[in-house]
Design a protein that fits this description.
This protein is an alpha+beta fold and about 290 residues long. The protein contains 13 helices and seven strands. The protein has two domains: about 130 residues, Butyryl-CoA Dehydrogenase, subunit A, domain 3 (Up-down Bundle), CATH 1.20.140; about 120 residues, Roll (Nuclear Transport Factor 2, Chain: A), CATH 3.10.450.50. A seven-stranded mixed sheet has the order 1-4-5-6-7-2-3, sandwiched between helices.
Amino acid sequence: MNRNDELAQEFEARRAHLRAVAYRMLGSVSEADDALQESWLRLNRAGGEGIDNLGGWLTTVVARVCLDILRSRRSRREEPLGPHVPEPIVSREDGMDPEYEALLADSVGLALLVVLETLAPPERLAFVLHDMFGVPFSEIAPIVDRSPDATRQLASRARRRVRGARPEPDVDLNRQREVVGAFLAASRAGDFDALLAVLDPDVVLRVDRGPLPGRGEREVHGAEAVVRQARRFAHLARSARPVLVNGAPGFVVAPRGVPQAVVGVTVAGGKIVAIDLLADRARVRELDLRALED
């Protein structure tokens, strides 16, 4: 086996970990795979020379590539019309696709990714690498071009944002299914009292329609306000198909079998605390929706 074959083998052994880092950094499976491809090219060019800790070296390279992607994304993105819902991972209701299990370890729910989207790129990198993967601040600091103490502050600031905006979801998947099922049943029946019963008083609804303007608010806070918004979408609930969205119960809206929206639901304390709706048709068409196949 030559050196290139050895490097390829070692890279593949670490692919799941590196892909998980990249997905948390970017909130996109396709961009995460692009980051891994670029990282492999850099490793191949380096030839492994002078690399004592290949795992650490690759994690650093993936982080640098992701940081460049985040900065480029921010520089070219126009003023957002509302929340940006990251690329959800949709699986069959009865279980996760093994291809995505490593990506979603440690409950990387859609609501968490939405919060991460609000962080500045260096904050996101410091939080993801340190809090999610235990990388020391001394190793993160050179990536973000700051001192270890300043990097610690980046992660601390991000941590406060995440804790303040993301409720801890329930761990009982069956109970979550019951709550989401009750939400759909109430929506289909137009039973708005029943809807109020499953919504947390401080529930937030975030709608990502993409760059095009449309009717309705894009971010709604409070159970009564969410119910008023839900009245306009009651007919869509009839075409909702239950799935797992980032490992938690959610649904895909597919009238006449054509997917139009993916909805992630966060359940905490037996109530729905967040609803994240990706209704950007162009982005929905690009998703892996094999879970809808019979």
